[in-house]
Amino acid sequence: QVQLVESGGGLVQAGDSLRLSCAASRSISSINVMGWYRQALGKQRELVATITLDGNTNYADSVKARFTISRDNAKNTVYLQMNGLKSEDTAVYYCRSIMGIRIYWGQGTQVTVSS
Fold it and tell me: Which residues are within 8 A (CB) of 74 and not within 5 positions of it... i.e. 6 or more apart?
């Protein structure tokens, strides 16, 4: 079992940057895939980015070249660096991990980008 706590969201202007953090309650050194998802108002939750233990990353086409996912296993934390934010990036951002057959989600952090 693991608890995930996201932080770093806020209200920014288009073109600004934010860094989100996802702190896990236990070591993530044995968790292969960690990911960030987002859900905009009235829309389904969607994948933003994932990262594996060996550092392989995967991004949604809409965020490629703007967002960077990283993980610090020593700090049990996953990050999402978001640059060049656009109004369409406005959403609640969630951290996700999979352990065995169980999926764990954080409570989310709101990112609002004003144009």
Answer: none
